[in-house]
Amino acid sequence: MKKSYIVYAVLTVGLFALGVVFAKSTIMIMIDIPSLMLVLAPVILMLLSHYGPKEFVNAFRAAMEKSNSNEHELKNALVFFSTAQKLVIASTAATVFLGIIMILNSIGEGYTDSGKTVAWWMAVDVIAILYAGLLTMVITIPFKSALQKRLNDLKG
Question: What pTM did the predictor assign?
């Protein structure tokens, strides 16, 4: 992976933020702790069920550095990021279904402020999907691609 990755990743996220500003909205509506928690925390916990903290670091290092990683280390890192990508998708799907259940519950219970509750959970769902897209686009796909490229270079 090129050293300029971080610059491009920041520019990519910044472009989305700029789009929000040009749409005459505020960035703060895109920051939602429940959505972030429901998407990211399960991914990290499930990755920790298979990988130790050192393996987390090694996976990122294998993709980022022009180190002397061998084929075995590159393959392990590729599996790590493939697993992370699948977990992001699964976690987001679970979050969306949780939101739908909460929406249906608020409607079924006849809450006096059900419109607000429905809007809140719909926002959590949509922002969770946004976070999943960003995580996939900015982390899992580029790292998987860099690792696959390095593996291909090793094989000649």
Answer: 0.86
DSSP line for 34-85: HHHHHHHHHHHHHHHTT--HHHHHHHHHHHHS-----HHHHHHHHHHHHHHH
Does an H or E element contain 126, and which? helix 114-135
59 and 77 Cβ atoms separated by less than 8 Å: yes
Q: Residue 148's CB: how many other CB atoms inside 10 A?
A: 16
Q: Which residue has the tokens 């593996």?
A: 151
Q: Encode pLDDT of 45-60 as tens digits.
A: 999 999 999 999 999 9
User: Half-sphere exposure of residue 79, counting CA atoms within 13 Å on the CB side?
Assistant: 9
Say how far apart CA 57 and CA 39 lie, in whole Å: 21
